[in-house]
Amino acid sequence: METVTINITRASILADMKVKSHAEVALIVDEKERYLAELGSEKVEEAQQDITDAAAEIASILRPFLTFSAGTETATDTYDTTATITYVLSVTSRKSPGLANALMKAIHAYIVDSALEKFYNSVSRTDLAQRHLAQQSAALPFIENLLYRRKSPTYTT
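User: That's the sequence. What structure does it adopt?
Assistant: Structure tokens below.
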């Protein structure tokens, strides 16, 4: 078994969310509605919670491959402010080549879409949320394909 580590930076996720949100709400004519719908600096705490929730969704998908330390596990429900979300996977040598980079990009995109979907639902913009729900739904089979497919075996003579 080999170890594959995926690091997702919260600041990078949040920056992508802000860029997408700014572009998406630009089409809203009413200034007050646009302000309420856009992910701005005053809504960062809510966006951070949405990122945490999306990261938990990814953890549930990756769970069969996650490595855990032996012994007792503990968890708290305090507001998560970790700068980097890390997933450490244990995979076979036939799955590991090229997995880290491809999986990191897919997870990053999924978290951005999932967090934006949650954010837009919280600000009552279901029209914008539906786009991201569709994109994250399309990303799931891609992530699962990365996790469950492996390189063809090589035979030595």
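The chain has a mean pLDDT of 92.
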